Amino acid sequence: MKPNVYVTGCASDFCNQGTRATARDDALHQGRGNPLRLPWRFAFLLLVMLCSVISVSAAAPQATAPVPCSGCWHPALNTSWQWQLTGKIDQSFNVSMYDIDMFDNSASVVRELHNAGRVVICYIDAGTWENWRPDAKKFPPSVLGKNNGWPGERWLDIRQLSILEPIMQARINLCKSKGFDGVEFDNVDGYSNNTGFPLTYNDQIAYNTWLANQAHANNLSVALKNDLGQVKDLLPYFDWALDEQCFQYQECNKLLPFINANKAVMEVEYKLAPSQFCAKANQMNFNSLKKHLNLGSYRVACR
Fold first, then answer.
1. Distance in angstroms (rounded) separating the CA atoms of residues 98 and 291
2. Which helix (H) or strand (E) holds 172?
3. What pLDDT shows up at residue 61?
4. Are residues 33 and 121 in the same domain?
5. Distance, CA of 258 to chain centre
């Protein structure tokens, strides 16, 4: 974790008293040796340092401890899967796990997949606002930032936890009530994007760890989606990883901490042909797929 340090003054009356006392002492003893002047100044410096430490602690959101989830789904390193976020779900693939949209699919679809022996993961966008979602009006304008490149989507100000947490908690509850086994939170790397907000590394850590802990509190397995720059800090909180285009952008080594921790990596390429990445993906023990960008039913598995 890279702490963000802010230089701030001390606004408390206690610190101001130290300032006033030092000024009064100097006025009364101008140019004269005074045994009280050094202790006052020393005390004042200590107070300023103390207030600065308190200010830094308040400014940098702190991650809480991981919530354990022994009953959650923990996929094996070699796990077959399908990722479909658009269109009617094609249930014909003989895979261990399906990752599908939480809002667009009913509990009956989840039951059908369960009856076929599939683990079912719900997709939830936790980092951007989507204007077509049924709860879109619950997001006030103050938390909506810049467009993220997709129509109808805007980055969220993840610092405003008092607003976002109840909304995301309701989504997690809905995921659980529909019978899903886990959750994929999307767009959880806003701090490294042009969101319109001055999001920091620690802001993202605080938000992502809260999401993971809430999923585990509901006995839901949780995937870390992309966010490669925070893998080492977030590894204890997430059960597996889902990444897009790491071979295209030559950053797959950043996912190896998951493999080394015996946690599965699901990976997708859109532009590369299977011949350009599958051999390397299998060598790295990734569960890689070739998909179309619209994330329909089309699927080519590397293994």
1. 14
2. helix 161-177
3. 56
4. no
5. 16
72 falls within a domain: no
Whether the Cβ atoms of residue 209 and residue 199 lie closer than 8 Å to each other: no
Residues 241/231, Cβ–Cβ less than 8 Å = yes
| Domain of 201, in residue numbers | 81-301
**Residues 50 and 198 grouped into a single domain:** no
- Look up residue 142 and give its DSSP letter: G
What is the number of structural domains in the chain?
A: 2
Do 52 and 195 sit in the same domain of this protein? Answer: no
Do 138 and 38 belong together in one domain? no
pLDDT tens readout for residues 226-284: 999 999 999 999 999 999 999 999 999 999 999 999 999 999 999 999 999 999 999 99
Check whether residue 40 and residue 139 sit in a common domain.
Answer: no
Coil/strand/helix, residue 228: helix
**Contact (CB, 8 A) for 257 and 231:** yes
Sheet holding 144-147, edge to edge: 128-130, 153-156, 144-147
* Spatial distance between the Cα atoms of 215 and 71, rounded to a whole number of angstroms: 12
One-letter amino acid identity for 181? D
